[in-house]
TrEMBL record:
SUPFAM superfamilies: Phosphoenolpyruvate/pyruvate domain (SSF51621). Keywords: Kinase, Pyruvate, Transferase. It comes from Emericellopsis atlantica. It catalyses: (2S,3R)-3-hydroxybutane-1,2,3-tricarboxylate = pyruvate + succinate. It comes from the Eukaryota. This is Pyruvate/Phosphoenolpyruvate kinase-like domain-containing protein. Pfam families: PEP_mutase. InterPro entries: ICL/PEPM, Isocitrate_lyase_ph_CS, Pyrv/PenolPyrv_kinase-like_dom, Pyrv_kinase-like_dom_sf. Coiled coil: none annotated. Belongs to the isocitrate lyase/PEP mutase superfamily. One of its GO terms (molecular function) is kinase activity.
Length: 302
């Protein structure tokens, strides 16, 4: 029996999206559940936040504590919930020298990740919106991106390489631009100026980098003013990520529920949130279908 032609990879799909004029909007997801909710709402691109991954998987702050294995495993799970929806995943510093960056790109590619961002912070990195950051020199950064590009070519992969500079805070705008330009020369597909602080700076960065697409990191209450996708598009950005779009509301909702439980002995979970509702959000229908198509009847009475 012939099988259907394989659909395009998520990375190839993201490359197509980059060519269109629409803004690419990716909500931050930090676990399988938040990713499923983003898919339920109909987003056509997801962002795996490193900060959210470290917080949820390790219960730790975003200080470079996650290893390649932690991040890859998480990214693979997220990328494959719906492989037709591209996942942009945080890859921090690439986790070492050129050979480690090469392993990172190869492993993210094999895991079905559509795009990854690699930055110029030192290995003991921190969230880009904390003070006291330090960056490697421009040549080391260009080597990281060059290793990513060579790996992508070697594998025949469409994975989109996003170069992020954290140099704005310590070295100023001109040096940050120089770094992004060096990264583009080294093979980056998309530029990411971390911690942009004003609309003028944002507009100028997009102008100087054109035609290279620029990503905006819309961390709420960080260094960057709050802009909507439409406002970001008007400034010249092509992609926007909202890293805390799920972990922020989750914190409040979970905490409120726990306080209620502690004080009143009840969680206050809404009556519509039945066990079946939870499993439906995370793919119950698909699981039933797979079983039925294989001739099974395991879930007839679910
Ligand atoms: C984008 C980011 O890398 C992330 O992990 O989501 C973080 C977000 C954050 O911690 O504020 C970053 O900007 O460094």
């Amino acid at each position: 029996m012939s099988s259907k032609e394989a659909p395009p990879s998520a990375a190839a799909k993201l490359r197509q999206m980059l060519k269109k004029k629409d803004m690419i909007v990716a909500p931050g997801v930090y676990d399988g559940f938040s990713a499923r909710i983003a898919l339920e709402v109909g987003f056509d691109c997801l962002y795996m936040t490193g900060a959210g991954t470290v917080a949820s998987k390790l219960g730790q702050p975003d200080l470079g504590l996650a290893t390649l294995n932690d991040m890859r495993e998480h990214a693979e799970m997220l990328a494959n919930l719906d492989p037709s929806v591209p996942l942009i995943a945080d890859a921090d510093t690439g986790y070492g020298g050129p050979n480690m960056v090469a392993r990172t790109v190869a492993q993210y590619h094999r895991s079905g990740v559509a795009a990854l961002h690699i930055e110029d912070q030192i290995q003991t990195k921190r969230c880009g919106h904390l003070g006291g950051k330090a960056v490697v020199d421009v040549d080391t950064f260009a080597q990281r991106i060059g290793a990513a590009y060579q790996t992508r070519r070697r594998l025949g992969s469409d994975i989109v390489i996003i170069a992020r500079t954290d140099a704005l805070q310590t070295h100023g705008f001109d040096e940050a631009m120089r770094r992004l330009q060096a990264a583009v020369q080294a093979g980056a597909d998309v530029a990411f100026l971390e911690g942009v602080t004003t609309a003028d700076e944002a507009r100028e960065a997009c102008r100087l980098l054109a035609p290279v697409p620029v990503l905006l990191n819309m961390v709420e209450h960080g260094a960057t003013p709050s802009w909507t996708p439409a406002e970001a598009k008007a400034l010249g950005f092509k992609m926007i990520i909202f890293p805390f779009a799920s972990i922020g509301p989750a914190y409040k909702a979970i905490k409120d529920g726990f306080v209620k439980l502690k004080e009143e002995g009840r969680t206050g979970v809404g009556g519509d949130f039945t066990p079946k509702k939870l499993f439906t959000v995370v793919g119950l229908e698909q699981a039933i279908k797979v079983d039925a198509e294989a001739g099974g009847s395991l879930y007839d009475k679910v």
